[in-house]
């Protein structure tokens, strides 16, 4: 069966990053600012994030060759790039490694003036923005210099168009960030604001969790993707690798 979609599509959040660890420390310490030595784009994986990525790579390696990814499309952020490279190396994706493609449309949601601020920091430094965000909601709220979820969805629409055009009937692995995972689900599952925010309220996307789809042909001969895994964590649990669910975004982003 030939479809316009990839035959299989996996979406994976990067492994735990040094930024996730620093954010947790700042929140627990009641600090206003998350202290990091790197630009957000350069934040690497933590030691645990490396272990999580290896576990996912070993899981992909256990799949039959004809069920493994042929192409990896990855956020250019260092934590996502490291995750993709570790997965490819452990699974020995000869073709996928050669086809690893960095795409800036998969980058982290941009937080603008709220970048590196904890919930306390946002309330302290930008109380008006905190109030506005609580009124408007994260789907439409755009902090100065940053993005709303709608902005992220707009850039992902063109990414999905590229995937259907260039990788039809191929097996594609996407490695990116928490907001990207949710916004991809919004588009691929034809959700609305209420539905995707309810999914978000249920909890953060765990680091290295796998969400996947496979192509199907409906009765009216239209192509579609069918969801078959959501935040799949068996690769971590089977190897006793700790599961982490730290958010990428400032705490104030949760309603």
What does this 3D model show about the protein?
- With 255 residues, this protein is of the alpha/beta class.
- It has a single domain, classed as 3-Layer(aba) Sandwich (Rossmann fold), CATH 3.40.50.1240.
- It is 41% helix and 14% strand.
- It has ten helices and six strands; from the N terminus they run E-H-H-E-H-H-E-H-H-H-E-H-H-E-E-H.
- The chain has helices at residues 18-28, 47-61, 78-91, 94-98, 119-125, 127-136, 149-166, 178-188, 193-201, 234-237, and strands at residues 8-13, 71-74, 101-102, 171-176, 210-217, 223-232.
- It has a six-stranded mixed sheet, sandwiched between helices.
- Helix 2 (47-61) runs parallel beside helix 3, helix 7 crosses helix 8 (178-188) and helix 8 runs antiparallel to helix 9.
- The longest helix is centred in the middle third of the chain and has 18 residues, at 149-166.
- It is globular, with a radius of gyration of 18 Å.
- The model is unreliable at 251-255 (pLDDT under 50).
Describe the secondary-structure layout:
Layout: E1 8-13, H1 18-28, H2 47-61, E2 71-74, H3 78-91, H4 94-98, E3 101-102, H5 119-125, H6 127-136, H7 149-166, E4 171-176, H8 178-188, H9 193-201, E5 210-217, E6 223-232, H10 234-237
Parallel strand pairs: 1-4, 2-3, 2-4
Antiparallel strand pairs: 1-5, 5-6
Quick structural summary:
This protein is of the alpha/beta class.
Number of strands: 6
- Please write the string of helix (H) and strand (E) elements: EHHEHHEHHHEHHEEH
Main β-sheet: number of strands, strand sense, barrel status?
6 strands, mixed
Which structural category do the helix and sheet elements fall into?
alpha/beta
The second-level CATH architecture is 3-Layer(aba) Sandwich
As residue ranges, the low-confidence spans are: 251-255
The average pLDDT value, as a whole number, equals 90
**Any idea of the CATH topology?**
Rossmann fold
What is the global morphology?
globular
CA radius of gyration is 18 Å
CATH superfamily: Phosphoglycerate mutase-like
Residues in β-strands, percent: 5-15%
Question: For the record, what CATH class applies?
Answer: Alpha Beta
Q: In which order are the strands of the major sheet placed?
A: 3-2-4-1-5-6
Continuous helix count: 10
Please give the share of residues in helix.
Answer: 40-55%
First and last CA, distance: 43 Å
Total domains: 1
